[in-house]
Amino acid sequence: MSVPQLQLNDTTPITPDDNHNQLDKTSTRKSLHQNIFGKLRPLPFQYHWTVWYDKYTPESDDPSTKNKLYILHEDVADIATFYRVYNNYPWDKVRARDSVHIFRKGVDPVPEDPENRNGGCWQFRVPKGKALAFFHEAVILCMANEFQAALEKEHDHVLGISSSVRFNSHLISVWNKLGDNELSIKTLERTILERLSPDLRPSGSHADGYSYRRHGEE
Fold this sequence. Notes:
Layout: H1 27-40, E1 49-55, E2 68-76, H2 79-87, E3 99-104, E4 120-127, H3 128-143, H4 146-151, E5 158-165, E6 169-176, H5 182-195, H6 206-209, E7 210-214
């Protein structure tokens, strides 16, 4: 099973709307994007990020084994680099049960990493029709420190975003470092829901639409 390859074309102009016009269905979402891009365009990100591909294998069901992790882009330092990666990635070729992770550089997207060991994640089950838009917005909000700023008082950290393909949905996870800090967990939940575009917010009940999972929980 091959991994979808990332082909970067540095001559392609990068704009926030490239290949995303279909995502901007509401003026609210456009306004959100404009505010975020306005903050990011002049300066590099506060943190550098790494893009990973996580290929599922049958052996991955054994807790003693790991999925096969591949680095697609090791150092995403600014918004232009992010869009060179994002706009050129073949999202439609990500297979069922495979995942894409965007994590702070130096942090592996696995629970065993020292930064993740005591943490957890908010996990959202998103219908396929909205999954790419949801992932795109969540990643931009994460890279722009919109989530991180909300957790500063709790000394917590948002470490990355994952998207795992399922049959008719994607599991999109926002990982944080402190899985035992209830205030931090609730603050992150509220911030995610408030900052996402209204048409992307979960419409189902809390139990069915999304939940928080501490690493190591079944």
